[in-house]
Every structure is written in C-alpha cells, then in structure tokens.
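step: validate -> pass
step: tokenize input -> pass
step: predict -> running
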Amino acid sequence: MPQRSPLHPGCRCRISARKDTLDWWKEILEDGEDGIGRAREATAASMVEWLDLEALPHQRNVISGSKQAPAIRAQAFGESSNPDKFNELAKWEGHLARRLEKVISLLMKLRNTREQHRVV
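step: predict -> pass
step: emit ->
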C-alpha cells in the first residue's frame, strides 16, 4: 500500500510510494550513490532520476518475470526430465510390478490353503 513519506527529514516535499521503494531510497541516500554508480542527494530531482533510471525498470523486470513464471517452470520441468533415467525407471517399475503380482498370488494361495485346512 503506498504511503506518504518525506524525501528527507529536512525537505518539505512529500511523495507517495511503496514502503520498500522508500526504504531502498533511504539506503541509497545513506550510501551516497545508487546501484548504477550515480551520486544521489536528498532532492526531488535526484529521486525522480533514480526512479526513472533504476527503480521503475527494476519493478518492470519483476512484473515481467512474474508473468513468465509458468513458462519458466514448464521449461525447468522439461529439462529436468532425463529420458535415459525415465527408461531405467520404467524398466524397474515393470520388474517390481511382476514381483508384486507373484507375491500377491502366493499370499492368495496360502490363504486358500489355510481355509482348506480349517474346513477339514
């Protein structure tokens, strides 16, 4: 939620921006320069230039990246699927399925044998 906050304690100007953007601006003022190496002062002109050159492009990239997240997720899933590993797993799956069928068959025979001995 945007909040109104002063540019600098001594400035009478007020701006409306997100809290994280204001915190970022305060950090830049403390450091004296922004992320692209330009010196920054606590003036409206310096802040507007910073917003145009660094903050807004960063936020546009974040928005653009979030729109592409499903495609990136699908690509990562596709690249993580190794066909050789899949073939190996499919072979083991078939082997284990046959073994399970044999075990179930043996258990059914044992149950039938026990039922036959109870009847006698």
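step: describe -> Residues 83-119 form the longest helix (37 residues).
step: cleanup -> pass
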